[in-house]
Amino acid sequence: MQASENAADKNTTTTDASVKKVVKTAAETPADAMANTSANTSANSTADPKRRWIELLAFLVTVLVIMCIASWISDPIRTADYRRLNERDIYVGSALLEPENSIDLAVLGDSEAMVLISPAHFAEAGISAYIIGQSGQSTSEAYYALKRFCKKQDPKVILFEPDTLVDDSNGRRELIEVFDASAYELFPILRHHGTWKIAAGLAEPKDMTHFRGFAKRMKVKSYEGGAYMAPSDRAEPIPFLSRVYMDKICRLCKKEGIEMILVSAPAPLHFTYEKHNAIAKLAEEEGLTYIDFNLMQDEIGLDWAADMLDGGDHVNMTGSVKMSEYLIPYLKKRFDLPDRRRQIDMGP
Amino acid sequence: MVHYKLVFAAGFLPIVMLLYQIIPKKYRWIVLLLASLCFYSTFSVRRMWFPLAAAAITWGIGLWLGALDAKQKKKLSELKAQKAEGSIPAEEVKTRRTQINKHSVKSKRAVMILGIVLLLWLLLSVKYTDFALENVNWILRKLGVEKQAAMRNLILPLGISFYTLQAIGYLVDVYWNKVTPQKNPLKVLLFLSFFPTIIQGPIAAYEQISEALFAGNAIDPDNLACGYLRLGWGAFKKLVIADRMYPAVCWLYYKPNAVGGIEVIAAAVMFTVMEYMDFSGCIDMAIGIGQIFGIRLPENFKQPFLAKNASEFWRRWHISLGVWFKTYIFYPVSMSTLARNWAKFAKEKKIAIHPTKMVASAMALLPVWLCNGLWHGPKWTYIFYGVFYFVVILLELIFEPLGNAILEKCQLSIQSKGVTLFRVVKTWCVIFLGELFFEANTVSDGFAMLGRMFSGFGASIQSAARISEWGMDASDWVIVLAGLLVVAIINHYREKGVQITAVLLQKPLALRWAAALSLILVIMIFGLYGPGYQEVDMIYAGF
Hints:
The structure holds 2 protein chains of 2 kinds.
Chain A lengths: L1 H24 L4 H7 L12 H26 L15 H8 L7 E4 L10 H6 L4 E3 L7 H11 L7 E4 L9 H17 L1 H5 L3 H4 L40 H17 L2 E6 L8 H14 L2 E4 L4 H4 L16 H18 L14
Helix pairs in contact in A: 4-6, 6-10
Chain B lengths: L5 H17 L5 H14 L7 H37 L4 H38 L1 H14 L17 H16 L9 H9 L12 H10 L5 H34 L6 H32 L17 H7 L2 H16 L2 H12 L4 H24 L3 H30 L7 H23 L3 H13 L4 H6 L8 H22 L4 H6 L3 H18 L17
C-alpha cells in the first residue's frame, strides 16, 4: 500500500516535472514559437481527446446547472426581494413594491419615456400611472420589464415611447442587446449579482424614493434649431430584432388584456419625419394608436424656449405637464380607468 | 463587443469555434478573417476602411519588395551563367554583382520607405493631426496671431496603433528577407485584424503567428480548456480587480492640486496596479483566445514588478512593444552610419570605452523612447513619459560601474537578497513616478502632484482619512487586496517557469473543476459587469 502510494506520488512528481520542462523549453523566440504554434498545450496532454471532449461537455453542463441553482436561490423577483434588484431595474422594482394590481397605466421606453408624463398630475386626476422606462432601454429590455411588471400589476393601458425603435445607433447594437437581455433573463444571477453586498448586509439598498419613475427635471435649455418635421414619404428602417421584440410586446399586451398606445415625446434634436413614418407604419401594422407630440406643438402649447431640458433632446418638467394635460382627458375618455385618487401615494 | 463581455465569451466565440471546426481545414483561416471583420464591425463599420487600407498597402508593398528581390536574384543568376560561359571577365563579374546588389538594395529601401510612409500617414492623419494643430495654435498665440486652426476631433479607429506597427514590422522583415511576402491580400488582412489582437495587441511579428494563423488546425480540447481558463483569468484581473479600483483612481486624479502627499503616492501606485491588471488582463484574454485556435500569441508581461532596473522593467512590461522598438528602431540606429562614425571617431580620439558606449546607447535610445512616448498618444505627458525613461535608463547605464564599485567595497553581492530587494524597490519608485506623469492631465499637473507628494505631507493625516470618499468601500478593498494576492501567487509560480494552465490540466478532475468553477463563480459574483454598471474602457484600447 505504502509502496503504491509512493509510486503514485512519484508519478505525479514526474508528470509535473515534465510539464514544467515542456513549458520551460517552450518557445520564447519567434522561431521557436512557430514550431510550437499549433500545439500549445496539447503536447502536455496525455489523455484521450475524446475523453477530454466529454469532460468539457460535462463541465459546461455543470456550470449551467450551478448557474440555474444560483439564479433560483438569488432571484429577487422570485423571492419578492425587490430592494435587491439591479440598479437599472429600480423603477420596475419600486412599481412591484406598490400594492398588487394598483397601477392602471404604465409607461415603457428609453429616457424619452421617463419624461413623457408626470405621474403626479395623473394621480391628481385619479389615474394610477407608473413609468417603468430605463435610460437607453432597448425593445428587448422593454419586453422583459413589462413581463416583470405584469407579475404583480394588472395595467389597463401601456404608453410605449418608441424612440428606441428608431434610434440610429440601435441597429448595430441590437443583436448584442438581445443576447444580453435574454441571458440575464435566463440566469438572473448575472443581472442581479452586484447586489451581493446588500444580501451580505454590507450595504444598504438604493433609495427607491422617486416620482413613480418620473425624471423630474426643472432645468431649462431652449431649443433654437427651428422647424424639424419636414414632411417626407420615406420611412426610417426599424431594426429586425427590435421589430421581433415589438411583436412580442404586442402579443404580451393582448394576452394580458392591455391596450397599448405609441406616444412620441417631442425631441427636435434627433426626431425626424422619417422616424415618424416608420412608427406610424408599425402602428398601422399592429393596429395601434400613435400619438406624435412632435407634430402637436401648437395643440399642446409647447414652448421651445421654456419646455426643453437640454436644448432639444428631452422635455423638462413643464413640457411633461403639457403632455400629461393632453393625455389625461384623452385616456379618461377612451378607457374606463378607476379613480384611485385616495389610494395613490406619491411618496415624500 | 469586447473580449470580457458575456456576448463574446458565450455567444460570438462559440459560434466562431463551431464554424471553424466544421469547415474544411483549408478554409478555416477564412472563418477567422470573417470573424475578425464581424468583430471590428461591432465597433465601427465606417472606420473599417482603415485596416482594409493598411492591409492593401502592406500586401502591395510586400509583393513589390518580393518582385524586386526576385529581379535581383534573376540578374545575379544570369551573371553567374555568363560567368560560367566565360562571356564576361572575372573582374567585371565582381563589379557587376556589386552594382546589381547596390541598385537592388537602393530600390528595395525606397519601396519599403514608401510603404512605411503610407502606413504612418494613415496613423498620423487620425491620431496626431489635432495635437499638431494645438501646438501650431499655441505658437501662433505666442506670436500674437489671432487666427487659429480649427480642431478636427477625429475618432481614433480601433487598433490602428497596434496593427500599424505589425504592418511596418512585416514590411521591414520582407525587406530583410526574414519572411516571404504573402501573396494573398486577405491573409495579410487577417494578420493585421485578427480579432483577439486588434484591440490592444499583443503586437505579433508575421513569422511568429502566420503559420498557425493560416494552418487551420482543428480545435484541441486541451487548448480549448486552457484558452478559456486564460480568458477567465484575464476577465478576473479586469472585471474583479482593475474596474473595482477605477473610482478611486479617478477620484485621486480628479483634482491634482487638492490631494495630499499620501494621496499622490496612492494615486501613482493605484493607477500603476490598475493599469497592470487592466492591460495584462486583456492580454491574457487575447492570448487565451489565440490558444483556443492553436495560435500562440507572444506574451506581453513577465512579472514586471520583479524588475531590478528600468531596462529590465521594459523587458517585462508591454514586451511586444519593447521588442518591436528594439528590432525596428534600436538595432537599425545602432548599426547606422552615424553610430559607426561615432565609434570610429571615439577610437581615433582615444575616448574611454564607457563614455563611448554611453553616447552610442544614447543615440539609439533617444529615438526609441521618443517613439515610445509618442506611440501612446498625442499628449505631452506621454512624450514626457518616454523622455523620463530615456533619462532613467541612461543614468542607470552611466552609474552602473559606480554602483558595482560601491557593492564591491561593501563586499556585497549584486545577487544577494538585500541588494535585490533594494533594487526592486528602487525600480518601483521609478515605475510609479513614470506612471504619475503618464496618467496626469498635463505635465504641469504631474509636477503639481509630485510637489504635493513632499509639500503636502502636513495634511497627509487628514487626506488619508478621506479614504472613504475614494469610491471604494471596505468590501471593495478586501476583494481588490485578495485578488492582488492571488495574482501575486500565480505570478510567483510563473516566475519560476510554471505554466499554471498546463500544470492544472495534469491534476485530478476534481481539482481542475474546482479551480475552474471557483474562477467562474468569483467573476460571476464579484465582477463589475452587466446592467447598472458603467463600463470601464480598456486603457490601452485608447492608444
